[in-house]
Amino acid sequence: MKRRKIFPYNPDLRELAQKLRNNSTKAEVRLWQKIKRKQYYGYDFHRQKPIDNYILDFFCHELMLGIEIDGYSHQIVEVYKKDVIKEAKIKSLGVSLLRFTDNQVFNDMDNVLRTIEAYIIEFEKKHGRDID
User: What are the structural domains, with CATH classification, of the chain?
Assistant: First the structure.
């Protein structure tokens, strides 16, 4: 049995993460309906998970996978620059990150799920399913 990696996180983000969970975007709610309660390949995803000084929209510890849903604001240069820094830090902690737009979630959910599925298949080939 492997030990779970413990990530640094800013405890001040707990309250903000809770607010974000309670005020999810429509795209986040829509994807959450597909991946919650271990219904997607049996993996446990969490919403609004604090890691380091950031909050990931979705995170699965077993897969070392974060998922971000980007709305319109992420097209603004300042927000995009923050996303690049966030992504680099998250990846430096050994977490892979998949990014989707609101538009993809609303208009192409099948391909969003196929992308997540492809990640899972590759992860399982590399690491096996008995990850704990």
Answer: 29-127 (3.40.960.10)
